[in-house]
Design a protein that fits this description.
Blueprint (H helix, E strand, L loop, with lengths): L1 H28 L2 H7 L7 H12 L19 H11 L2 H9 L1 H6 L1 H16 L8 H11 L1 H8 L9 H7 L3 H16 L5
Helix pairs in contact: 3-11, 4-5, 7-8, 8-9, 8-11
Length: about 190
């Protein structure tokens, strides 16, 4: 009996160790195809979208945030409703108004809406040295905060490290820095 228990324990531990080695790769790359389909539609780098999702939810499509943000890219209900309205599809508007969590639970739709919003936020910062950092800060803390952090400086020429240093909300500064680091150094989507 004791040998049987030891054998079962060894098998279970081996399976757990194998899953620990192979499962993370699957987990963080299971939405790569969806990202590859949606990011280019909105002129976004797939690796940036992947890095944002990594930071927002670590690829947990079911996640609901403290401010009722939904899904992989933590899309807020007002953003989802605005997107649905702009599509011109009455069925999307209806679904978004009836049950936003269900509407945004679909990973591809969530990535599509998140990419749409990220591109919309990026537009005023396009071409600036800190474009990506400003866009990420706006995604996390809102565009009005980005304006606040650049109001007494020339935001059009501000270098990225200077902008990040001006972010006076520690969680947003960390958020932006982590995504930028992952975006520029990590493997990203396969």
């Amino acid at each position: 009996m004791f040998r049987y228990f030891i054998s079962i324990t060894i098998v279970v531990l081996s399976l757990v160790a194998a899953a620990g080695l192979f499962f993370p790769g699957y987990w963080i790359h299971r939405y790569d195809e969806l990202i590859a389909r949606q990011a280019p539609v909105y002129r976004l780098d797939e690796k940036l979208v992947w890095s944002l999702i990594y930071e927002e939810t670590y690829f947990r499509a079911w996640k609901i945030g403290n401010a009722e943000e939904v899904g992989l890219m933590q899309v807020t209900p007002p953003v989802a409703r605005e997107w649905a309205k702009q599509t011109g599809l009455k069925e999307y508007e209806k679904q978004a108004s009836e049950n936003i969590n269900e509407f945004m639970a679909d990973p591809e739709r969530n990535i599509q809406v998140g990419c749409w919003y990220l591109e919309k936020l990026r537009e005023p910062y396009r071409g600036r040295p800190a474009e990506t950092a400003m866009t990420l800060a706006a995604y996390n803390a809102g565009p009005s905060r980005v304006e606040e952090w650049t109001k007494d400086a020339d935001g059009a020429t501000m270098a990225e490290p200077d902008f990040v240093a001006r972010i006076n909300i520690p969680s947003t500064r960390s958020y932006v820095a982590m995504i930028l680091e992952r975006y520029r150094t990590a493997a990203g989507p396969k």
